[in-house]
Specification:
The complex is a heterodimer of chains A (about 300) and B (about 260).
Chain A: H1 2-40, H2 43-46, E1 50-51, E2 56-57, H3 60-91, H4 94-106, H5 112-139, H6 154-178, H7 182-190, H8 195-204, H9 208-224, H10 227-232, H11 250-257, H12 263-299
Helix pairs in contact in A: 1-12, 3-6, 3-9, 3-11, 4-6, 5-6, 6-9, 7-8, 9-12, 11-12
Chain B: E1 9-18, E2 21-31, E3 36-40, H1 47-53, E4 64-72, E5 75-76, H2 84-90, E6 91-94, H3 106-117, H4 122-135, H5 139-142, H6 155-167, E7 173-177, H7 185-198, E8 203-207, H8 211-217, E9 220-225, E10 228-234, H9 235-240, H10 245-251
Parallel strand pairs in B: 3-8, 3-9, 6-7, 7-8
Antiparallel strand pairs in B: 1-2, 1-4, 4-5, 9-10
Helix pairs in contact in B: 3-4, 3-6, 4-6, 6-7
Classes of the chains: A mainly alpha (about 300), B alpha/beta (about 260).
């Protein structure tokens, strides 16, 4: 009885510590960001100029860079991840399922700086020498693929991010597909569905909200990813539609400039960017949760 | 033993394995059109596995294989040029637990097989859905909630929905694997009534643990034991004067 009560209080205290950590973090960011937000107001988010020397601080290029690189990464990664997860739950022979799943999940354990090095030495030259000539040659007339072949830039960053979030999305999708009861698969097979039709009817359709959750989890990871992106995105705070142009993200500008920030206003602007990043990733998560709950109550899964 | 020539579906020397474990041993058994054949026997006697061999569902499980022939209207469904997918759309199946597709409405569930096959107009699908639901004795209960999720129905209704889904593609044979074992007595009674109605248009093979059920609804009964077919005959004869001692023991409740 007594020991139970003590145990209870200890757990309560530990849970509170986590909460307190979060509150302190937000409070710290808010405090640091306040001067920048006060001088620029909401315009901080919408202005495009970023020139620390002349005290010009606008977060839009970084917001743009973060959102575009992450969404692009999600678009590249989602089909691959969903396909890989389906392969692991429904196609691959039982004996190789676990080893392959393990290998894919291993990718998540690689430090992001290693992805960054790989991006610089392998992916960037590949984009410069193969992807750019192809896309620029065929689609160079569109605003999306114009520009010179730097190698480093939005597309390379998105590709590195895609590789980094694939294990996460694959692992979650795999759990989601595994949780579909076999009797649904039998229902489809039993009315004369082919393998693909069975997967479509009995595996993918009941899993839509789970697939969505997996994608949001991946997106969340991409939004905050710092090191690898900083190494390959080119770090130029410009808004361009072209995927071959260098860009910068909220995380990358903080990583790049915090250590040698010039003066308090610069530091404060970087903290404000951190705050915006926190808000954006929280919004993505809450929005996703809301959508998932809505679709779940609709489909009665 | 049945004369194979009159049977609409007949197994010839069917054996089935899970890995190295032989669950069905050399069974030959047929059923005439419009009859209900009940497969009875203790758990693990191979009756469900045998049933799943009749529409090539057995091979869908990993590390399984089967041997022998199954003649459906005289044609071997295991011959090389036969597509198992086509077999399963002619020989419908109802499972132990109701398994409507959770993301589909009542109507969509029934139409699922038709949509897979394609080539049906909207109005054809609608009339087939209604027909199948009527045949499954579910129409009156769901006609005002065809757009509701299939999983919003009660357990017994869900099982009849699954029967309707199987009937919508107008199979000649319906395989039922303990269709009432998860249902309450009232729902069970409704499905039994339904089966006596259905056998006018479909041949039914049903696996059941419930011997009263077998006695009530079937014309023929086959008793399985440890993968072998022990005895097969008219239901009345099997229940009243079985020729084999094992059958007698099982029916009188001495084991199983």
């Amino acid at each position: 009885m007594r020991s139970d009560r003590i145990f209870n209080w200890i757990l309560r205290g530990l849970a509170l510590t986590v909460l307190l950590g979060f509150v302190l973090l937000v409070w710290f960011l808010w405090n640091e960001a306040l001067p920048a937000l006060r001088s620029a107001g909401l315009g901080f988010i919408w202005s495009t100029g970023w020139d620390p020397v002349s005290g010009d601080f606008g977060a839009l290029p970084f917001l743009w860079g973060t959102l575009v690189s992450s969404i692009l990464a999600l678009m590249l990664s989602a089909p691959i991840s969903i396909g890989a997860a389906l392969f692991l739950t429904d196609i691959a022979p039982k004996s190789i399922r676990t080893p392959i799943a393990f290998l894919i999940e291993m990718l998540a354990a690689i430090p992001s700086v290693v992805y960054g090095i790989w991006g610089i030495f392998v992916l960037a030259p590949f984009v410069r020498e193969h992807v750019h000539p192809l896309l620029n040659g065929w689609l160079g007339f569109t605003p999306f693929f114009e520009g010179p072949p730097f190698g480093l830039g939005m597309l390379t960053a998105a590709m590195v991010l895609a590789v980094m979030i694939t294990p996460t999305i694959t692992a979650v999708c795999r759990e989601v597909f595994r949780s579909v009861p076999d009797l649904l698969r039998e229902a489809a097979t039993g009315i004369g569905a082919t393998r693909w039709e069975t997967i479509r009817l009995a595996v993918i359709r009941p899993s839509i909200s789970g697939i969505f959750a997996a994608m949001i989890l991946g997106l969340g990871r991409a939004l905050g990813e710092t090191m690898a992106v900083t190494m390959v995105i080119g770090n130029r705070p410009e808004i361009s539609l072209s995927l071959f142009k260098p860009a910068a993200t909220m995380a990358s500008v903080i990583a790049n400039e915090y250590a040698e920030a010039q003066g308090d206003s610069h530091l404060s602007a970087l903290a404000a960017i951190g705050l915006v990043l926190l808000v954006v990733s929280s919004l993505v998560n809450f929005g996703a949760r809301w959508i998932i709950e809505r679709t779940e109550s609709k489909t009665h899964v | 033993m049945q004369k194979v020539s009159t049977a609409v579906i007949a197994a010839e020397n069917i054996s089935a394995w899970y890995g190295s474990n032989r669950a069905v041993i050399d069974i030959s058994l047929g059923v005439n059109p419009g009859e209900v054949l009940a497969l009875i026997g203790p758990s693990g006697c191979g009756k469900s596995t045998f049933l799943r061999c009749l529409n090539r569902m057995h091979e869908e499980i990993d590390h399984t294989r089967s041997e022998g022939r199954v003649l459906y209207k005289g044609e071997d469904i295991y011959s090389d040029d036969v597509d198992p997918v086509a077999v399963r759309s002619c020989i419908g199946m109802v499972f132990q637990k109701a398994n409507p597709f959770p993301t589909m409405s009542v109507a969509e569930n029934v139409a699922a097989g038709l949509r897979l096959r394609g080539g049906f107009s909207r109005s054809e699908i609608e009339s087939r859905v209604e027909g199948a639901l009527r045949k499954a004795a579910l129409w009156e209960e769901v006609k005002n909630k065809l757009r509701a999720p299939g999983t919003s129905l009660s357990g017994g209704q869900q099982q009849r929905l699954c029967i309707a889904r199987a009937l919508a593609v107008q199979p000649e044979i319906l395989l039922m694997d303990e269709p009432t074992s998860a249902l309450d007595p009232i729902s069970t009674g409704r499905i039994e009534e339904l089966m006596t109605e259905l056998k006018k248009s479909v041949t039914i093979i049903i696996v059941t643990h419930n011997m009263q059920q077998a006695a009530r609804i079937s014309d023929q009964t086959a008793f399985f034991l440890m993968g072998k077919l022990v005895e097969h005959g008219n239901t009345e004869q099997i229940f009243n004067s079985p020729t084999r001692e094992e059958t007698e023991n099982y029916i009188s409740g001495r084991f199983g």
